[in-house]
């Protein structure tokens, strides 16, 4: 492994402005939002074309250099952390929105396009890009694809995977593959596109994508409901889900709303405080839909499922209510949260959260716990907040000792240890709670085909 020779040869591919080796750059592009691992890359390169990416990958194979992809670096599982002398491949300079296929409601984008920029492009065409989450202003499409990002609209539109009609990828060998070409119907053998979605850059790097756009939703309306217990949250999902065409169904607890309101990131939705809150959204396409929503609300109040509530009356109020949910991650980040991003079938949610609550009470009696998540798709975020009297390392160590009990509960309900944040390095030790040994061996075999020298994001998802 000779980084000096490798970089000398990379300079025949890229100009000096596309290569950084200074300490500040190595720190900035060598990490993501996780704080578990210190960044230690050897260099950062900024290709501008798929062909440049392919040439870099081929050189890396020649010199046995490991590569780590870098997008918006908003990941929460250390999937984009370069901690072992790797070369970071940043897609910041591959950020063009290309051809728009009007008849197909599809657009080609490079991997470095910011999620928010794609959303705004879709709006300019009177269309809608449905994948949305708190980091949309900085996350990049390539990273979204690498983790199969979800967010707040999954109940209606599905994960990132559901929006991808085609991919251009550079494999771990340095081959360029054009996958599916944007077709809705293509029954010609294996669809490698889906292998790269959610693979966290371990098979190769996504450089371009063909993205499906949706029709614009009509008169989005939100309700925030104060709820007495988590069991009521699940019952409300059933009742409102049957009556309305929901676009989102989120929940958060009193700790989350206290932190958000104290930080001044949102306004009180109503005077009373309750243990849990639901934020649901739907298209109010007619007065009849609004009447239905109010009828369900009143019935649920009579049944004791709702203690208080509010409905948006304008676009401005809609955005204000969403701040209650979308501000949580940013607000609690100052508390160095230990995050668990898990999912189970909606059928099991009530029993699952009761089991987890007991584990938390038994093992974290002095820790503050913050719950929120996308209940509409069975995804819960368990955040344990670091107390001031513990160092980060001591705090993480205490949390990790209880992971076994949390993940055994997930396995009991046949759930996932990572619903939407990926595996990366933080969840790698626990992969076998969701994937069987046979599955993991097949995953390793697939990696060996696309990345025989193991240079692509080595050490992420599993060890080879």
UniProtKB/TrEMBL annotation:
The reply on keyword Lyase is no
Matching InterPro entries = FAD-bd_oxidored_4_C (IPR004113), FAD-bd_PCMH (IPR016166), FAD-bd_PCMH-like_sf (IPR036318), FAD-bd_PCMH_sub2 (IPR016169), FAD-linked_Oxase-like_C (IPR016164), FAD-oxidored/transferase_4 (IPR051264), Oxid_FAD_bind_N (IPR006094), Vanillyl_alc_oxidase_C-sub2 (IPR016171)
Q: State the Gene3D superfamilies in the record.
A: 3.30.465.10, 3.30.70.2190, 3.30.70.2740, Vanillyl-alcohol Oxidase, Chain A, domain 4 (1.10.45.10)
One matching Pfam family, short form?
FAD_binding_4
Q: Which residues form the FAD-binding PCMH-type domain?
A: 37-216
Please give the Gene Ontology molecular function terms for this protein. Answer: FAD binding; oxidoreductase activity
Q: From its record, what is one biological process in GO terms?
A: respiratory electron transport chain
Keywords on record = FAD, Flavoprotein, Oxidoreductase
What are its cofactors?
A: FAD
EC number(s) reported in the record:
1.-.-.-
PANTHER family recorded: D-2-HYDROXYGLUTARATE DEHYDROGENASE, MITOCHONDRIAL (PTHR43716)
Q: Which family does it belong to?
A: Belongs to the FAD-binding oxidoreductase/transferase type 4 family.
Q: What is this protein called?
A: Uncharacterized FAD-linked oxidoreductase Rv2280
- Phylogenetic placement of the source organism: Bacteria, Pseudomonadati, Pseudomonadota, Gammaproteobacteria, Moraxellales
